[in-house]
Amino acid sequence: MAIAKAERLMNLALCLLGTRRPLSKRELRGSIEAYLEAGSDEAFNRMFERDKDDLRELGLVIETVENLDGDIGYLARRDSNRLPPITLDAEEAAALGLAAKVWQQARLAGAASGALQKLRAAGMPEAEGAYEVHSALEPRIPVHEAAFEPLMLACRDRRPVTFDYRKANAARPEQRQVEPWTLECWRGHWYLAGWDRDRRAERVFRLSRITGRVRSRAGAFTAEVPDVVTVRETVESWAGETATRTALIRLRSGSGYPLRSRAISVRELGDGWEELEIPYGHGLDAWLVEFGPDVVVQEPADLRADVVDRLRAVAKD
Over the stretch 287-298, which tens digit does the pLDDT of each residue have? Predict the structure, then answer.
């Protein structure tokens, strides 16, 4: 069984790498003997989808292309699946080893481990000494949101998605149609940056506010994907990183340490409260709400009103 599957995967990879145009499922089924022997269309479809996912797990970049008639085809471009010669010294190998330990999410942990094995097979040094020097470092990036994995794959494969999204000040979620660009982690929260088709504008979504299942959609992106630097700047701006003015808040003593780390000034008020001046940018209201009764906004008035609106929306639930 294992040999038969390996042969089937190899044949599928050769077909996808050897074509100059996207091949439909029907064409692939007619080209691979194991698919011809499938008992039904349903059995073939299940087998093909599993094989395609397995090849992607192994690192093959498979593109999904929709033609003018709406038919879906697949191909693996050689230039997308060819790496230049890789030479790493011991320190660089150690850095990659530490990076591979970052991910706690199962799929990414396996992918990182597999990538290291491939690099070592290509001659990357083991860098055992460098690992021992840095062995006390245990970086971690937790991923708790169920939406992370399907969105990560959609970003990689350039596939549009739909999902239900609840804004912080909304009582109910609403469906969004998005062309996903990239995922960014900021202050312990994951954000998706992409093109919102309904609003015809760039938007950023916090993954913890995505409800239900993320569903993939066929078809190509309609908007141009900006460079990575621009996307990251957008995530930081929408999440509140870019400050345009300052805000004055009261903070309960012994709480809100992330706020304290950003404070421009701190003044004791007595009775267990302190007054902080902090940078104020887009998204600060949503962040302040997370601290609940430990934070009271004093000024500006528009920030105070936004925080009150968000708290009222939460209280309605």
Answer: 888 888 999 999
Residue-level pLDDT at 130: 43
Strand partners, 210: 165
- List the Cα angle 146/198/151 in 5-degree steps: 20
Detail the DSSP E strand segments found in the chain.
63-66, 72-75, 161-165, 174-186, 189-196, 201-206, 210-216, 243-252, 265-270, 273-281, 295-299
Mind listing the pLDDT tens digit for each residue in 117-135? 666 665 666 655 444 444 4
Q: Measure the CA–CA gap between 290 and 168, rounded to whole angstroms.
A: 11
Q: Say what the pLDDT of residue 267 is.
A: 93
1, 3, 12: which is closest to 55 by C-alpha? 12
Q: Pick from 98, 49, 93: which is nearest to 74 by CA? A: 49
pTM of the predicted protein model: 0.49
CA-based R_g, the chain, Å: 25
Residue 211, Cα to own-chain centre: how many angstroms?
Answer: 16
Half-sphere exposure of 292 (CA within 13 A, CB side): 2
d(CA 196, CA 202): 6
From 157, 154, 156, select the one nearest 176 (Cα to Cα).
154
- CB 206 within 8 Å of CB 190: yes
